[in-house]
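*** Fold description ***
***
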Amino acid sequence: MDSSRPAGSVLDLATPPEREGNGQRSGEPGDRRQVLGLDGLRGLAALYVVLFHCWLYTFPGYPHSSAPRWLDGLMFGRLAVVFFLVLSGFSLAISPARHGWRSGGVGEFLRRRAWRILPPYWAALIFSLLVSWYVVPASHFGPPTGATVWVYGFVAQDVVTAPTPNGAFWSIGVESELYLLFPLLLFVRRRWGAAILALCVTLPVVADGLMAAGSSPVEGDNWLAPHLAPVFAAGVIGAGIISASDRVRRLPWGWLAVLAALPVLALGVVQGSVWTVNHYFWIDLAVAPAMTMLIAAVATGRPAFLVRLLTTRPVRRLGDFSYSLYLIHLPVVLTVIRRVAPHFVSRGMPTFAFTLAVGLPVSICGAWLFSKIFENPFKRNRSWKSLISQWPSLRRG
């Protein structure tokens, strides 16, 4: 198993619906209201994942890491994936929650998701392949093969195994499958309510987990979408806060999130970090309600200090290109750790510090530039015709 793979290279496919040329969000007809703070959450979570990968590839032996214990807080990158899945479900369900839980058409929804997600992903795939072939392989399985190009090109990496060009790409396959499930989740939510939706997606996963040897399934490199569907659905359910009554919106969602997270945190402290990593199947499910409540708290404007932080310009800007940061940061980090750092510093903490000083800013600046070229044009335009018509202004911008 690739150590970068289940550990949690971020799933920042928690991207909001694409912005149309007139300033509206697609899927939100006539509705210009935005939920403040969500972009900031994406940005901070993406930054955590970059730090996680700096830690992961500097100190070998994951989850029995050789890193100093005071850096153990960086080892839970997988939980960032769970958070992004919850946030993705929440973000995509905002507009349906405002319009009777209707998506505006399955085909149109999938077309817009593909338009928003695939162009920057394919550009990052080419970049990752070049780095993996000519600079540093992305995993211990060796450089990508011809099968890699086909499997990852068709976003089938959660179904078919091939040498990865980028350890972060596993989550793209998972999220793509969950997009196909999203219209069905909306139908169940509209027809039978939130409780039935939660039961429909969670009970089969729990039953599968209990039937596994040791009651904790051993995860491979793929087939994770069914297991992670409940956390995505938790976000969909949480989006109901957008259209909820004032009484529900005024509930102390931030404190409820803390209370929901405390048992999971206590279990992790008692059992230890290695046990936590080895039982992510259950930890993912247990922590999703707390994450959903945190997002609901931010969506309702509380706690105010957190919302102010998330809406500061640097954090908001980081959130704007968090998807690009997710897509390209790992080849940069690997190049710094395995090809550049050995020429300047020794292994261990010196390499980690060097990576933070060089790899982190290069990843962020590179992602910003990458987003300008490969992501923003597809956010601002809904079709090739619109994109081509804007090409002169894009070049000037």
User: Anything to note?
Assistant: Residues 349-380 form the longest helix (32 residues). The chain has a mean pLDDT of 88. The chain has 17 helices and no strands.
